[in-house]
Amino acid sequence: MRVLIVGGTEFISLHALQALRRDGHEGVVLNRGRPPERLPADVSTIVCDRTDPAGLGAALRHERFDALIDVAYAPTTGRDVAALLDALDDRAGHVVFVSTGRVYDHARPIPFDDRTPQSLYWGEYASNKIAGEDALLQRHRERGLPASIVRPTHVYGPMNTRNNETFFFDRLVRGRAVLVPGAGGWLRQFGHVEDLADAIAAMLGVPAAFGQAYNVTGEEAITQVGFVELIAEVIKRPLTLVHAPVAPGGKPAAFGQNLTYDCHAVYTTAKVRTELGIRPRYTLAAGLAQTFEWYLREGLDRREIDFSAEDALLRSLR
User: Which 8-state DSSP code applies to residue 114?
Assistant: First the structure.
């Protein structure tokens, strides 16, 4: 298959490209042309700003694909998704839109499945992703476009652009205490990036996936504190936790890049497992171990980090 990846040089899209090439597909990347050094030399690229409909139409006028993976977010609106589909008309093949579990109403009982009502709990990000989903599904209903939606949550692994697991690696390898906002009891769920990439590659061209939305993530739900304890166990470092009370309306202590919010986030993957036979290869512990090996290879354990604000907070709590 010839597959267009919109994005291509960041975390999820790079792993998707690797999964496609491994499976014998041709991956073509559309982005703004930076940073090109992240791509293999033999990967074709189309340089274009996806938010420019006229430029997009010109760049894709003579292109045809068997599938399209839309993973870019810069942010990406529903109009941007529609413009991409317009630019390719009926030449996109099977379109897979990478959305997010944050489209769901997180005030509802857990776990969330594809029938859980959506809400704007997560603000503009949720609004844009919902609009993107709607634009895609409208094309599916009205024109028969083969289209699928995947909804990951807290994707982790090598090259992560979110400072979540690496946030805790940074502190544990330096023997630092880890601040926990409040009790640290909110449940989180994580999915390894290679499992997400494999799932996307596996569903391409599968008719059963057309018109469907799937949660794609790991199987384990874990509390905020439990996540840090698991990391410490996996990387074999001692752990000191310091709980930082959160005043009403106050700002919680830093805890990863986006793990502080005060609600549970647990998702069932039963649909993608039963309907498509897709399931993750990595347990959370195994995925963290693999990610830590990458972290050390990249020398991230030696990078300079300013802990001064954190130190001040730790002193105030002791």
Answer: T
